[in-house]
Structure formats: C-alpha cells, structure tokens
Design brief:
There is one protein chain. By secondary structure, this protein is of the alpha+beta class. Among the domains are: 77 residues; 137 residues, 3-layer Sandwich (Rieske Iron-sulfur Protein), CATH 2.102.10. It has eight helices and 13 strands. The strands form four sheets. A five-stranded antiparallel β-sheet has the order 3-4-5-6-11. Strands 7-8-9-10 form a four-stranded antiparallel β-sheet, with no helix packed on it. It has a two-stranded antiparallel sheet with strand order 1-2. Its main location: membrane.
C-alpha cells in the first residue's frame, strides 16, 4: 500500500476530522460533515484609551488638536499675506531646488500647512477624544418581504389605473411626447453655444491655382531664379494680407508654407520621391509648415540631410521622399503644394492643396 493512501497513518498526523491538515502531512480522510452551528468568536477585549480614563490625558489631547488647528490658521494667514504682499518677481535660494520665486514658495507652504493642520487635527481628534464605543449590529435579511413587494406593485398599478393612463392612450402618447421634447431646449442651447460648424474650413486654404508665392513678411513675389540650392523661404499666398478681421490669423496659419530648393538628383527614385520632384519646379518644392501631429510650426531645415524638423515633438520629415515621416509622433507626411511659374518667371501655385493641412481630424477623407 502506498505511503500516501488514506488508510495508512504516520506519527504526528492529526486524527481524521479533528483539525486542519498541513500540506506536508500527507492525506487525511475526512467525514465531509459540517457543524450545525459555528461558534461565535466574539470580539477582543476593548482597550481603553488614556484620554478615556485620565482627565489630564484628555486635556493634553485637546491641546494637541487645538495646536494643529492653530497651525492650519497660521498657514492660511501666511498664504493670504504672501498673495497680497510678496512680489512674484522676488527670488530666494532654496536647497536642492535652487532659485525660485519667494511668493510661490510662501503660497505653497501656507496652503500645505493649512491643509495639513486640518487633516492631522481631525485625525487626532477622532483617535483620542471622539467616542470609542464598539457596536455590534446583528445581520438580518435586506430583501423586503413578499407581501411588501406585492403591495408596491399593486400600488403602482392602482396609480396607473387611477390616472387613467391605461384607459386613455391619447393622454399617454401626448404626455410621453411632451416629456421627451422637454429635453430638446436644453440640448439646443448646448449645441448652439458651441458656435458655427466648421464645414470645409478645416480642409481648405487660400491657395488656389495661379496665386503667386509671396515672401513673408515682405509680401513680395518670388522668382524661381531667386531661390538657390539650400535656401529656405517662409511663404504665404498672394492677397492673404488684404484680409481683415479675426479670420486673418486663421487663414495665415493654415496657408503658411516652407519653400526650399534641392538638386533634382537628390530626390529618391521612389514613387513618393518622383511625385515630390514633379510637383515642384526645377528642384524647388513647397510644403505646408503645419505639423501633422498637433499643428506646431515645422521650422527647422537640415540642408545636408534634406530633413524638416518640428521642434515641438521632434517629428522629422524627409523632403527627398515627399516629406515622409522618418521619426517622431506625426502620423502622415506634410502636404505638398504643387507649384510652377507664370509668364514672368514668378512662382505660382499650380493647384490648391490636395489634402487638408495640419493635424488629423475625424472628418478627414485622406
């Protein structure tokens, strides 16, 4: 017979059914029964606090709580005085953190002392002076009796019957309609306060076919012969400076373009690279300056690598491959503006942007 069989006992094994079995004591055959009633373990003896029996200890605890509340009051006064009396430009040296504003330091300390004093005072009050009585609440069924639940249902049915909703469908329909439409005024005010819908404003700019590329801030047109290899220009569409009113900055922000000139041989021999070269003019290319991540201005151009860099989150775009994202969180390339020249040799837009500029939004189609 195996040493692990229940019929074979070893020294030190408990008697079957007498106690819990340790995992290292082998197997014990139990009888599978449960006691008719569990013994009430009771509650541990109540330990009295010093303040419960000693008046001096209670008085001492009272003074401690009062002291903490006074500390909170001093912190509040310090905060108010620092807010009105200390110049925010005044600086002091603080170990570890270094130079910092004295006003900010005092405001932080005052608010911290105010909250800390109240919190510690409340805890000390509860632990030393508030009642420390232990109460036992006997368990009882929380569910209402069947009679009570049936009575509630009968009451609701009687109310529906007495209101005649069940016998007058016209009242039921009009009451439901009135209550349902009642929420519409609130929703209309909420939606209406959001302002006009953007419609196609997020997808369009002032760039249209034939508009000249104008230097910013000089507002003068640029000839292709003026753009040398390695140069970078900040460009806006012709006529944008004639806009007045709050819409001006919005249109400038959407239409701003970076223009640079590369050697045509520098473009990669890929579908994107060939497209970038063809949409340019003799190596001159123009791309939206608005980063496709969160809309920061892409303002850094590395001439040796032909990379455009957004300084906000370091998204990097490769100009030789149609501004493909090669690093950073941007999700798509910068939109390219197709350009050509007019009869006088000035650079002009050959068409509008073929995709929305800037960060993505839920209505984007591309």
């Amino acid at each position: 017979m195996s040493e692990n069989t229940p019929d074979e006992s070893r020294p030190g094994d408990p008697e079957p059914g007498s106690a819990a079995v340790r995992l290292d004591q082998g197997h014990v055959q139990g009888d599978g029964g449960l006691p008719e009633q569990f013994q009430n373990p009771g509650m541990p003896p109540h330990e009295h606090r010093a303040a419960d029996d000693d008046p001096k200890a209670a008085k001492r605890a009272e003074r401690q709580v009062a002291g903490l509340f006074l500390l909170s009051m001093l912190g509040t006064v310090l905060f108010i005085v620092a807010y009105f009396m200390v110049d925010v430009e005044t600086e002091v040296y603080v170990p570890i953190t270094g130079q910092m504003s004295l006003a900010n330091l005092l405001l932080g300390l005052g608010l911290a002392l105010s909250l800390l004093g109240i919190g510690l005072g409340a805890v000390q009050w509860a632990k030393t002076l508030m009642p420390d009585t232990e109460v036992v609440e006997m368990r009882h069924p929380l569910r209402s009796s069947k009679e009570s639940r049936d009575g509630f249902v009968d009451t609701m049915l009687d109310g529906a019957e007495s209101s005649q909703l069940t016998r007058r469908p016209l009242l039921k329909a009009t009451f439901g309609g009135a209550m349902g439409l009642f929420s519409l005024p609130l929703l209309v005010q909420l939606v209406g306060s959001l302002g006009p819908l953007p419609k196609k404003d997020l997808s369009t700019t002032m760039w249209t076919e034939g508009k000249r590329l104008m230097l910013d801030p000089e507002a003068r047109p640029v000839k292709a012969s003026d753009v040398t290899i390695g140069s970078v220009f900040h460009i806006l569409p012709e006529g944008i400076m004639d806009i007045h009113g709050p819409d001006r900055l919005t249109q400038i922000g959407k239409a701003t373009v970076l223009m640079m000139r590369l050697n045509p041989e520098d473009f990669q021999d890929t579908e994107k690279g060939r497209k970038a070269r063809e949409w340019g003019y003799q190596g001159i290319v123009a791309y939206s300056k608005v980063c496709t991540h969160v809309g920061c201005p892409v303002g850094l151009y590395e001439q040796t690598t032909h990379h455009l860099l957004c300084p906000c989150h370091q998204s990097t775009f490769d100009v030789t491959n149609d501004c493909e994202v090669i690093f950073g969180p941007a999700g798509r390339p910068l939109p390219q503006l197709k350009i050509t020249v007019d009869g006088e040799g000035y650079l002009i837009a050959d068409q509008e942007f073929q995709e929305p500029v800037g960060p993505s939004f839920w209505e984007r189609e591309s």
